[in-house]
């Protein structure tokens, strides 16, 4: 039987406590979903786009910020963007293929430093659908909104429901519907406003037309016109117009 002196016993207890704390912290980290863990991507184009976005932020003078994935990036410089958003000093920080974890990393690494937009349009989550549960996707989006509120407390956020995808109703749409039901609760009636414009892209029978989404995911020029029309009243509110 081992016998400890009092100092040795105290040291043993302290060591045990530290070990348990470390194990608890490691367990918590292991349990954190990928959707909430900020991480960059290794693609060269992605790194260059991030660097360009950081440089754009450094210049300031951004009144309206769009955040998201390829669907947001697809605004590019099309006619609808030039008509509705260029005059409003808008910036497009949409990155093709991004998931919630990538947006989190970008926001933590310079993309919102130096700007204080009056409005932010956020739509993210569809690229998480293959790997993450609805709850984990919603958790990632929630973390993004929390970070934006912390870093840009004066900005009004328009949180869009994740758009429907697939020609016909399908399990992925159902998962995204579950995500949307959860993130709708982030609407606080003040700085965060939730809006579901998914019906703008659907036909009466619930299908998606190639005229709106050629691959049943990414928008056509017609799709972007519908997007702009659907959010215009909300954007006017965000910007105090």
Task: Describe the protein's architecture and organization.
By secondary structure, this protein is α/β, with parallel strands linked by helices. It has 2 domains: 1-31; 38-239, 3-Layer(aba) Sandwich (Rossmann fold). 46% of the residues lie in helices and 10% in strands. The chain has helices at 6-31, 44-59, 70-73, 79-84, 100-108, 134-151, 171-183, 221-239; strands at residues 64-68, 90-94, 119-123, 156-160, 192-195. It has a 5-stranded parallel beta sheet, sandwiched between helices.
Brief write-up:
With 241 residues, the chain is α/β, with parallel strands linked by helices. The chain has helices spanning 6-31, 44-59, 70-73, 79-84, 100-108, 134-151, 171-183, 221-239, and strands at 64-68, 90-94, 119-123, 156-160, 192-195.
Mean of the pLDDT scores?
91
Level of helix content? Answer: 40-55%
> What is the structural class?
alpha/beta
What is the rounded Rg? 22 Å
Total individual domains? 2
**Strand residues, percent:** 5-15%
């Amino acid at each position: 039987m081992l016998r400890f002196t009092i100092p040795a016993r105290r040291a043993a207890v302290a060591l045990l406590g530290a070990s348990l704390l470390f194990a608890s912290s490691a367990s918590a980290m292991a349990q954190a979903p990928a959707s909430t863990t900020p991480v960059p991507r290794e693609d060269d184009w992605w790194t260059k786009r991030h660097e360009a976005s950081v440089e754009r932020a450094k210049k300031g003078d951004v009144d309206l910020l769009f955040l998201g994935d390829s669907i947001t990036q697809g605004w590019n410089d099309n006619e609808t963007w030039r008509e509705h958003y260029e005059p409003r000093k808008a910036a497009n920080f949409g990155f093709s293929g991004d998931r919630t974890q990538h947006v989190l990393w970008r926001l933590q690494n310079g993309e919102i430093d130096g700007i204080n937009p009056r409005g932010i349009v956020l739509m993210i989550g569809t690229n998480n659908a293959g790997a993450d549960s609805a709850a984990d996707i919603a958790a990632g989006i929630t973390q993004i909104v929390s970070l934006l509120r912390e870093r840009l407390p004066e900005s009004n956020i328009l949180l869009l429901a994740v758009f429907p995808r697939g020609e016909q109703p399908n399990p992925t749409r159902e998962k995204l519907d579950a995500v949307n039901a959860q993130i709708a609760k982030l609407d606080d009636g003040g700085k965060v406003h939730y809006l579901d414009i998914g019906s703008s892209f659907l036909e009466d029978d619930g299908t998606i037309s190639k005229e709106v989404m050629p691959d049943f995911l990414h928008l056509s020029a017609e799709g972007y016109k519908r997007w702009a029309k659907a959010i215009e009243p909300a954007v006017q509110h965000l910007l105090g117009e």
